[in-house]
Queue: 2 jobs
Job 1
Amino acid sequence: MTRLFIAALICAAGFSTANATVGAASAAPIDVPDTMAERMKPCTICHGESKADAAGAAAMTGRDAYYPRIAGKPEGYLFNQLRNFRDGRRYYRPMAVLLENLSDQYLMQMAQYFSALKQPYPPPERMVSSPAEIKLALKLIDHGDPARKIPACRECHGKELMGTKAFIPGLLGLPRAYMIAQFGAWRSGGLMRRQSADCMSEIAKQLTAEEANAVAAWLAAQPVPAGTGPGVALSAEMSGRCGLGQLSGTLP
Amino acid sequence: MKRSLLAAGSFLLVFQGASLELSEASAMRERAATAKPDAKATAKAAAPNSLKARGEYLARVGNCMGCHTAQDGRPYAGGRSLSTPFGTFVTPNITPDKATGIGKWSADDFWKAMHEGKSRDGRPLYPAFPYTEYTKVTREDSDAIFTHLQALRPVAQNNPPNQIKPPYNLQPLLSLWRSVYFKPGIYQPQPGKSAEWNRGAYLVQGLGHCSACHEERNPITGAWGAAGGETLGGGQIMGSNWYAPSLTSSQEAGTAEWRIEEIVQLLTTGVSARATTSGPMAEVIGHSLQYLTKEDARAMAVYLKSLSDNKTARPSKFMPLTRADASGSTAPALSEQVRDWLQQGAKIYKEHCEDCHGASGQGAPGVYPPLAGNRGVTMTPPVNAIRSILNGGYPPSTSGNPFPYGMPPFAQVLNDAEVALVLSYIRNAWGNGASLVTAEQIDKSREGMH
């Protein structure tokens, strides 16, 4: 890469005299840092710049609520989502177009890069729920509903709801509207079409709209605890239910 | 799925610009290489020796997998939809499954499809399968590809039928079209050209089926594989909002003034100091051209570079708000209104584009394309440049450029008027001169995005 870049610079230098006829094109070429941050500009235009200051933190929520935070999410989760977007299993056209010609190897690099980013979290959203809605949300988050085979959110997404390595994303620090949209996508089966590990789809189908909204509102209103990251292990039962062993085998 | 028709693609060519003096040394090398044609050398792939391995290589060159694989589907099992004005074609399963694939085919059957454009049962095939180009492939190469396909693991997969609109679904019409525009015949090496040039022509005109995209496809005039040879004069890619630029015009993607090495680099890595690929061409490079042997890549480059420059400007439907003058320039007259628009565009450029593409449009050749003198942005149809601004994109990951830099999408950042202003500015800054772009054109491109 560096070699190519240097070659490009040399070529450009060689061309500069020939360019005289185009007027201003004799200006020195832009100095491009050979970094992942520079290569990820097409991502950060929506998902936010990697700046460790307050402005950067605010930008992490994106220009509107539909561009979720990706910094610090488990790398296996990010890698799977990147492949799902590219291969049409998770349908969102702008992502598909952006990734269509990229290799698994590059997508893994992207996942590792964003997973390792330590970004400050945005302040929580204002709580918009009634006490009854909060109670409903906490019941599902802490205990689930065994009668409907709904596990507690914490069982898979981690005690602190910050995700579980390597595939399960954290739930805090995300916009409410984004999470409601994801519940809808899971329910309609649109998020992970044709993927066998469809446990979240089954759960979302069991949830009523009121329940999904209450959970999303509660989660969005929680501050992100300092110094947390994804938990390391998932119970064997949950791992089996979601076919995660199978997924691990797909990491390059 | 609105993907491009036929996986061969359009260059979104991004050029360093101004003409380069052709290096004396390379010109001399080319003259030296101009020897007698050699039919054997033309047909002989420089790839591995076994028939199956050679077939695998040639199938890559023809990008068979590109069309015969659905998105996220099993390789070669078909099922990809190609949307065209004639209707939707669904590619067939070409794995050796006996019931749903081509397991019952013989090498003769396969040759009949490749060379004559006829199915095993004798029915004429629609030229969505580019037999108008594949007819130039030698029997030897066809047999090698067939051997490779027959060695694949059979996949039992039925695909939905084609949905061809009337009257195109009428077989007599297809037969009539064939009788007028299709003439079977393998590539005939041109006397007086080098073996390398002929090998390049064989690949570009045959398996590479470049003309499937880089030529206007018109059901009336039937330029689709018109007998008498290809023009590679550029055209809108059917079923997609991409323009595949002319490979002969110095105003578009003609490479007459490039060094051979630059063409090879673009074809095999997806980027060069002269240009960057995106869209369908990036797909073709990612799936196909990056696997070319050095010799074949060079041969293609030698042939492409030799294509004459016809300097044809595109039809006027692409030229709103232009001033037609004696020089053929499509740049707008600089009225006060136009100056104001361009100034507004300059502001947007400064805010969103300048960091990477430079205050003088100089860019970082090979990384961020220069926009000054960039034919990809100044060529008359602005659709590719519009698409790039709206959707962004990366050149392909290739072994020569595994982790490419990319262009961010601006569809959600800039509105139609802003995209029109900034692109109009880019098309008329730093010595560039091209027609203004309207908000309506941006809107139309957005429609094509879903």
Job 2
Amino acid sequence: MRILTNIRDTDLRGFVLPLAFLVLWYLVTALQLVNTKLIVPPAAVVAAAWDVVGSGQLLTGLRASLVRDLSGFAAGSGAGILFGLLLGVSRWAERLVGPTFHTLKQISLFAWLPLLSTWLGTGESAKILFIALSAFYPVALNTFEGVRSVTRAQFEVARVLGFGRLQRLFRLVLPAASAQIATGLHLALLYAWLATIGAEYLLGSSAQGVGSVVIRGKATFHVELIVVGMLLIGLVGMGLNRLAALVEGRVLHWRGPAR
Amino acid sequence: MTTATSLSRLAAPAAPLAPAAPPRRHAAVSLLATRAVDVAAGLILPLLLLGLWQYAVDRHWLAEQILPAPALVWDSLVDLWQSGELGTHLAISLTRLAWSLAIGGGAGLLLGVAMGVSAPAKAYLYPSFQLVSQFPVIGWVPLLIVFAGIGEALKISAIAIAVVVPVAVNTYRGIRNIPRALLEVAAVYRFTFGQTVRRLVLPAAAAGIFNGLRQGVMHAWLSLVFVELLASSEGIGYLMVWGRQLLQLDIVVVGMLVIGAVGIVLDRLLAWGEARLQGWQRQAY
């Protein structure tokens, strides 16, 4: 019943464009209007997807990429929360480290890769460090801003209540900054996935990974493989985004509905 | 006597002002002093790092190829700049950035306005748009390489895609947030469609559009460096790849410095533009 009303309530006009795209794609390849080596027919993409999923190649790649992504994300966002807290709580830390941090932040993320790969090689450590770096900036920045959003009045109430240092941190600063920190973590999750793919593209294709599947497809000119890889990258990105939004909603439930 | 009283009367109004002046100057001085302390404090860490870097090079902790001396980096920067090589590569990168901003920004603006102004356009476009926008930009690049080769078309289209999404989304939201009352006033004045867009929608959504542009520029700069690192024969990213292949890390570091400097300049320019835009808004009230 609920599904039925859901279907009735969805605006079907949204499906017109994707469907038109699929039909067009099918027609130009079926009628041989284009070079089918370059623009592969949809059926070939489905077959390739079936193939790589069946052979397990894609799933091991996906698992490798996700492990890489999440370990980099965990390391980077953990460091980011600590750094942001330190910068937010201590004026002196902000004065000493802030300018350097804000300057280094301006170096476009991927510009670090050539240097990192020279120092650490093209192995796992360089990739994870790079992913951690990509997650570090948004988390650190948002944590810092969240801590700074604690008002003087709240601070004074904590003092009146006789909060100690740790109590103040865990019962005032962290809860007050939690929404901003969550925003930072959400952003970091997306950036980390971007960095994972970027690192896999740029640092050789010898290792397992979704990005490597795509690069291998490019090297051997298997366009259907590239398309499958791209779709998978997009789906994982979308899934991470949904998951983050869901967790954010659950964890921040106590704050009540947003204004 | 009379002159004295008149003088004192003249002087009287000035009296309350006099004590007020010194504290203000004092405040200015102390503000300047805090600024100076802030700048000095901010410089400590970079200087320490530079010192550590030089020390590490002096002690040969790492091979010269892996850790070039600061002086060497500086020399390469000056060399590359004077030979015009750095300038050429930078100009190429910035041209790419400008083209993709123009194309992507223009397309994003059109899409955003179309979705914001017309409900049918939104119904048809928005779901697909939302779907596409979730794909990381970088994922597109290998497919684009196959379609567009590794020429200029690839770079510009890849970066333009990075700009379209934030500009369109923010334009759309900016227009959605226009109060209904304003649109009704426009209807009362019998504005034509073009007039409504030009004289109401665009100015009212300007802050949102600019916000989108700001995100767009940052995304564009990120993906430009990526594309140049992956597939390019010119540009600042290529310069770094080249330096890496020759194991001349001084060139890589120069590239990073230049990319950081461009990032700072872009950030400042956008902040300045935003401030001007907000200045205009304040004048309106």
